[in-house]
Amino acid sequence: MADSGAPKRPVRQTEKLLSALQALNDNPLPFVRDLQLGFVDGVNELTGILIGPNNSDYAGGHFRFSMRFPPQYPFNPPDFFIVTAICHPNVNSRFGTACLDALWSTYDPHMPLKVLLTELHNLLAEPNYDVPVDNDILEKTREKAREWTQSFAQPLQ
């Protein structure tokens, strides 16, 4: 049988992620919805909706996110993307890449998926204006963050 050349889904990694999803289904995080695991462009990808933290500029917002797991996961951390348009100093405006520097400095291969999702939620609760990922930080104000949340991150009716 000829090899199609298409990347094969990493079985052990997929099993680990499915187990983590089951744990989240059994004990869900109140700020995460609609989690789905897929295989896109040769990597496992977890997608879902992150609910903006109360008392933040993102309160009430529903933000689609994606976590892409490299073949080296769990030894290398996943990449985080906010798919919904968001005005945030730690999210790349063009690609939606979320910069979780605090998490990466303490990342451990045994870190549960629940912790990774909590850190992503914490990034919305506490943006770090001192370490922006873009040069357009002057445009990323708290007022603009609230405007964008109202414009782009409202739940579907």
TrEMBL record:
Where does the source fall among the domains of life?
Answer: Eukaryota
UBC core domain span: 12-157
UniProt xrefs under InterPro entries: UBC, UBQ-conjugating_enzyme/RWD
The record's Pfam families line, in alphabetical order, gives:
UQ_con (PF00179)
Give coiled-coil spans as residue ranges: none
Q: Which PROSITE patterns match?
A: UBC_2
Q: What is the designated name of this protein?
A: UBC core domain-containing protein
Native source species: Adineta steineri
